Give the backbone structure.
Amino acid sequence: MSGGISGVYRICADFCVVLTCTLFLDVFPCSGSGYINYTVYSHSPEMDDFNHTRMWMEGTSNVVPQATEPPPAQEMDVVETFLEHVEQYDKGKENCTKGTHYNLGKGVIRQYGLKRFKKQAMAAVNAANFYTRIWMRAGDEVTRSEYLFYTMVRSIVEGDPDIFAAGNCYDLFEYYGYYLFCPYAYLMEDKHINVKDLSLEYDYLGNDSEWFMSARMMSSQLENFNYTQGTEQIRLNSSHLGPFENDSVITVTYEDGHWSLPYFDCGGGDIWMMTYTVPFFGYKDGNFKFKGTSGIDIDLQKVDINQCPQDPEEAKISQNVFAGSHRCKNATTKCIEIGGLGFKRGSYKCVCKDGFYFPDLDAQHRYYKGTDVEAEFALKRKHHPNKYDSGFECLRCAPGCETCDDFSPCIIALNWLQRSIELGVSCLIMCFIPIIVWFTVQYRDVKVLKAASPVLLRIILLGAFLLYCPLIVGYFEASVITCCMKFWFRQIGFSISYGALLLKTWRISVVFRVRSAQRVKISDGDLIKRLSAIVFVFAAYLISRTIVAPPRIVQGKDVSGLKAFQCSSDWWDHSAVIVELLFLLWGVRLCIVVRKAPSEFNESRFISWAIYNEFLLSLFLNVSMIFLKSPFPTNPDLLYLVLFIHTQLTTTVTLAFLFGSKFYVVFKYRGKDHPPTQQQQQQQSTMLSRGSKYTMGANMSTLSNVDNCYGDHADDAECESFLEKDIQEEFRRLYTQLEVLKQRNMKLGNRHLQHKLSDMIEAAQKGDLPDSSPSTPNLNGKRIVINLDDYHESTNV
């Protein structure tokens, strides 16, 4: 709001500054000789991060350029040169031409005033409404007091430290006989307030006085302003008020004012400033008319230039032309605005992005100052030695760290030595599985293997191989793929291996519970069909889980506070565990049913041990894994160790139970069938003698060969021979019992015969040789001892 301008800024030292001045001038008069015309193009996007719309503008200058061609586009940097231009005006303000001609053009930081300085602008609004009432109702004795208006603008500056100046400028001949009148209060360099009539130094009626002309133009449409309706009572004397009088006056609001373009106020405050003005009105002949403006000036040193990127949503409302003009290295740092540094470049700091850390660990402030970055970049543009390219970078954090202060690890390091040992042991055991498969094929005709169904044994080996695979997959770092593979290997291997074991046990239980001599036919093919159904159910579950809710990688922390990653556990996993335990619980019930079943090679006993072992350890493992995962700290190496131990104590022990005795028998007898031992014969005889507790005991003597006779490759002739022998043995037992019963009845019906029979037996014993065995009745080649004294109860036959 200072004096008019008659020329341009005369201290520009080089062509670049002249181009920049012209680029941001709204009005640049072309008059007089010695002026030349030129065209200015915007900077090249390749030169910096300020990718703004290309601008084209014509201007004039009284400084002759060194070349007739405009500089190359890549040499221009609009924001950089503009900020240099602002600084040079500030340094050479004593040589400027008075006025406000040097403005920064449309769109430059206008939004700063709209947002930040609304409170200060309201002081001008209130003053404008006060002036309107004064000129409407007060008499000449009040309005002629220039001191009143000087005091008014002074009080505005005194009342708010953010206000640099305040003015009350009148239109042409609106203040009595003055051509122009503008009380103006402003802060001087020594922080004192000076008040003066600005109109004596500055004719603000020119078109370049945007702050005044815009308010004058806005006031031409009075219907757009508000009117207040009220009453007032003037005091008549010391004890009475006057009558009510209507008070209707035009008023202005904040929206009726105007923020000017930022400009250099040469002759006023000699600073870069922006002005808010709002009209006030006079009253004549019952009508309001524009009388002048009430305004405030804001020192742009209090306005921060935000060179950081602008939010897209905010850009839709008001665009910041400085947005994105920072010099931070975008790859590793980000721009953060620093408030309070004023209207100059470098009002930001370059902070390390997430995943990077500041190289100087001993620095008090771990960021790069924008002023330092801008200074080094300016040296680079001038091709001087600089540190811009080699510095102002942050270093990458350790792998897996979202944020960090140094290169310390954030993720727990896996113990690869421990994992390698555990994996090596598991792979070594897995190498024995093909050998065991060869063993079942090579000695498939040996009775100990033939009775155990070699086909089912190979199926069990296949399932065991799959149960070892989670150790191979779990050796590597957790990922979605490894989590899925572990789940699939575990469930399919479990369904195959333990499904076959349980079905073998189920077949024994079916045969064992038959109460007749009728032969039960359950072949290996029948068991394989049932096993296929079990595996199909498990596979359907796995497919559903993989499609609907695949495993995820979750992050946890161990006791040291380092991050650890592991597979997620949800209700799908819990359901699978429950199904496994129920399946094993059914196997435990089958084992209890067949616990007394005779077996020539004790295979049913070994299977029972394996099932008991798997049930108890699986229950323990799943409970422990719940506590090891969440909410307690976890360690991937610990989880892998638990998985290793569980696999060895279940799968390895099961293979040892099933195939250890078979290896021993085959290699002890060189692959030949061995005759039953005396202990086995005694066991068979004992079981035979106890068979009377069942209705028919034929199946008791055949359980040792149940798998052999009911397999797919069973020898029908051999099985028929076994059945015929069992029937003969059953008839022999019945015949013996009938003879005993007959003797008992004879004794009860003819008591006098007891003594005679006793005497006969005594005589027979005395007549025998001393080393000869006592003579007893013989039935079908078997000796029968009858002692009638042992029977004390009669039986009706």
Remarks:
- The longest helix spans residues 716-749.
